[in-house]
Design a protein that fits this description.
single chain, 106 residues, alpha+beta, 4 helices, 4 strands, 42% helix, globular
């Protein structure tokens, strides 16, 4: 059995998801303080990496995703991809908040 068919409910589901991946393989561009700047083609995104898992940047319950192309896609979601400048600004804002919180906790 194909590995992708074990992850998806059907071959049709697999084709729908993989069809959205036409921008190419996801790569890690930068890693800082537990956050990853990802790139897929010309689009960029930021995710949190904690305890060997990836998490979306959103409030509330966040399900962990594996560190893989598919896990990165799920962690970013459909609307998490943006241009590089916007993604880098988001990463910078997150890191400022991270350092502020760390200083308060110590």
């Amino acid at each position: 059995m194909n590995l992708f068919l074990r992850i998806f409910d059907s071959k049709m589901d697999m084709m729908k998801i993989l069809g959205r991946c036409s921008m190419g393989k996801i790569r890690i561009v930068e890693e800082r303080e537990g956050y990853l700047l990802l790139a897929r083609g010309e689009r960029f995104a930021v995710v949190e990496r904690r305890n060997g898992q990836l998490y979306r940047l959103e409030w509330g319950r966040r399900d962990p995703e594996p560190i893989s192309d598919l896990g990165m896609m799920h962690a970013v979601g459909d609307h998490g991809w943006c241009d590089e400048i916007t993604a880098r600004q988001l990463l910078s804002e997150i890191l400022v908040r991270y350092h502020d919180l760390a200083e308060r906790m110590w």
